Amino acid sequence: MLNEKLHxxxxxxxxxxxxLFLEMESYAREQEVPIMELSGIETMLQLLRIQKPKKILxxxxxxxxxxxxxxxxxxxxTIVTIERDEQRIxxxxxxxxxxxxxxxxxxxxxxxxxxxxxxxxxxxxxVIFIDAAKGQYQKFxxxxxxxxxxxxxIITDNxxxxxxxxxSEIENKRIRSLVKKIRSFNEWLMKHDxxxxxxxxxxxxxxxxxxxxxxx
Length: 216
Ligand code: SAH
Ligand code: MG
Fold this sequence. Notes:
The protein is an alpha/beta fold. The protein has a single domain (4-211), classed as Vaccinia Virus protein VP39 (Rossmann fold). It has 8 helices and 7 strands. It has helices at 4-13, 19-31, 38-51, 65-73, 86-98, 116-120, 137-144, 173-190; strands at residues 55-59, 78-83, 105-109, 125-130, 148-157, 195-200, 206-211. Strands 3-2-1-4-5-7-6 form a 7-stranded mixed beta sheet, sandwiched between helices. Strand 1, helix 4 and strand 2 form a beta-alpha-beta unit. Helix 3 (38-51) runs parallel beside helix 4 (65-73). It is globular. The two termini are 32 Å apart. The structure holds S-adenosyl-L-homocysteine and magnesium ion. The site of magnesium ion has 6 residues, from loops.
């Protein structure tokens, strides 16, 4: 998160989301579901409005918040979204049904690392949004980027991990190892031969990677 005053100022300026989204936001707060932060999702939606994707792949549905926000912002797009947690799948299905967006959202259940063929057969995708287990980001990127359209874009959330990626000393061993993985993903991604990437310090840090054309 940026400077807190600035952050609050920008969040206060945002128009209210509809009732269902506000309900999902409080559910996520109460149940500690890590849905995307507001400044992050607003930035992503704006990029999507510019890009106008028809088909989006999301890795990490949780309760369907970001999938539904994308569906509402882009009425012509379909979203294929992956989740492995049984409880969250149930909640996501209910929210998708209540918003009557079943036709726009296809929820594929399972571990994203094991269902590549099924997910690939729904492609190609104009946008891929990676927002699942942070330790596996490079794997998700590697296995799903072949299904990206040549004009496509990959958005990865949480690449600044609450600012921990630029802290030098981290006590907790598990967090330290996760931080190492995110750092190495960021470095790998920034020098990827086939993508131009910029990391935006909004929300929890989002990386925007655009496929390079010939000679770019
Ligand atoms: N995109 C959502 C938040 C996703 S939270 C939103 O902003 O609304 C991350 C989710 O990814 C969690 O629900 C977790 O269960 C799921 N996840 C993590 N690793 C996964 C994997 N390998 N396969 C499928 N889902 C995974
Ligand atoms: Mg996230």
